[in-house]
Amino acid sequence: xxxxxxxxxxxxxxxxxxxxxxxxxxxxxxxxxxxxxxxxxxxxxxxxxxxxxxxxxxxxxxxxxxxxxxxxxxxxxxxxxxxxxxxxxxxxxxxxxxxxxxxxxxxxxxxxxxxxxxxxxxxxxxxxxxxxxxxxxxxxxxxxxxxxxxxxxx
Length: 154
Prior knowledge:
Structural class: alpha+beta
CATH superfamily: Hotdog Thioesterase
Largest sheet: 6 strands, antiparallel
Number of helices: 6
Number of domains: 1
Order of helices and strands: HHEEHHEEHEEH
Helix content: 25-40%
Distance between the termini: 31 Å
Radius of gyration: 17 Å
Shape: globular
Strand content: 35-45%
CATH topology: Thiol Ester Dehydrase, Chain A
CATH architecture: Roll
Number of strands: 6
């Protein structure tokens, strides 16, 4: 699947639509993703700010998918764990940007070359229109070389 197709699917996916979540960029090489969430009457919490769950949802798959696509089909890639710290109330449009760096991919390939699993934390901040951090999110990604690849190498 092409990144542009996946972007369209995410932007039509009912949970994202209902939450006001919109993928504004998915680079052709899978290395950059930008996600925004607009404030809507139906996605405000009791005190008029973004729901914390929506702030988390807007970051949910956007480390795992680009890393999987950058590494290729020889790897199993899963989300393993997550943490979120709410820094200030989120109002208006907020965004998060994900950038997969060569160094992280090289580190993962080296750590999994012998068939070992590897767990790596990736941070992302959710930022408001004023440039302030609304939430800090960390996602732990599980990576392992697929069995058939390990068997062929030995």
